[in-house]
Write a structure and sequence with these properties.
The protein is α/β, with parallel strands linked by helices. It is built from nine helices and nine strands. Strands 2-1-6-5-7 form a five-stranded parallel beta sheet. Strands 3-4 form a two-stranded antiparallel sheet. The structure holds ligand JEW. Ligand JEW binds near residues 84, 114, 131 and 141.
């Protein structure tokens, strides 16, 4: 899979793309990431990418010219174009999984007060939001999306752990994890986990995942695939609250 990122701050991607899982996936050739400076498509001599908003108001807006030309020069046939925006479609695990099936994603990072609204229409691009807060630009949002999508690519998770097991994959929050020591400052790891009795461990973890989800994100239970017995158990815990 290939990502092409368009930004006026290409340096913002250097360290994040070198470290950890992403760095290894790039080194292994599973993932290609091109980072491009939007100013390379802006007119000389000032290489200006922004302009004042029509109608007035504070700040500046990304002009359509450099962004559209940059995308058109990096996009391959079938490549999907995503604009990072606070007003976009929410990035969810399901959307990340869908994006992971594409050959190319072009990520456009805005700055200032946002982008000229004609950009997404000319490019047939989709605006994506990584959450309900306002960032100062699209770079960190693009890195979050890159990370969430890349770890779903076959061969990127070197780890034995199956992706299907984790949070949101089964619609529930994660069960709690523990490692050594078994007693830390008087806080003990649950006996069932230390016992290593696998069937009991599996059942305990499932119950913990259900209880945590009920406690922290009850809305998730509406659409999570639960057995009839689990639904009944959750109902009982709910009434005990
Ligand atoms: C985000 C790109 C580019 C994404 C998420 N949008 C916007 C905006 C900004 C300032 C004032 C008004 C609107 C900042 N901004 C961005 C913010 C992505 C840009 C400029 C972004 N939060 N914030 N999920």
């Amino acid at each position: 899979m290939r990502f092409d990122v368009l930004t006026i701050f290409p340096e913002a991607f250097e360290s994040p793309l070198r470290i950890s899982l992403l760095g290894k996936a790039i080194e292994a050739g599973i993932l290609q990431v091109g980072v491009h400076d939007l100013r390379d498509w802006a007119p000389e001599p000032h290489r200006k990418v922004d302009d004042a908003p029509f109608g007035g108001g504070p700040g500046m807006v990304m002009a359509p010219g450099p962004v559209v030309e940059a995308v058109e020069s990096v996009q391959k046939p079938g490549g999907r174009v995503l604009l990072m925006s606070a007003a976009g479609r929410p990035l969810t695990q399901a959307l990340a999984a869908d994006l992971a099936s594409h050959d190319q994603l072009v990520l456009v990072c805005g700055r200032y007060e946002g982008m000229d609204d004609r950009i997404h229409r000319v490019l047939d691009a989709e605006e994506i939001s990584i959450g309900e807060y306002v960032l100062s630009g699209g770079e960190m949002a693009a890195l979050v999306l890159l990370d969430a999508v890349s770890r779903l690519l076959p061969g990127v998770m070197g780890n034995a752990r199956s992706l299907g097991e984790e949070s949101f994959a089964d619609g529930l929050l994660e069960y709690p994890q523990f490692t050594r020591p078994a007693d830390y400052r008087g806080l003990k790891v649950p006996d069932i986990l230390v016992s290593g009795h696998h069937a009991n461990v599996v059942a305990w973890r499932r119950e913990q995942a259900l209880r945590r989800t009920l406690e922290r994100r009850p809305g998730l239970l509406d659409s999570a695939p639960l057995t009839d017995a689990e639904r009944q158990a959750v109902e009982t815990w709910r009434q005990q609250e």
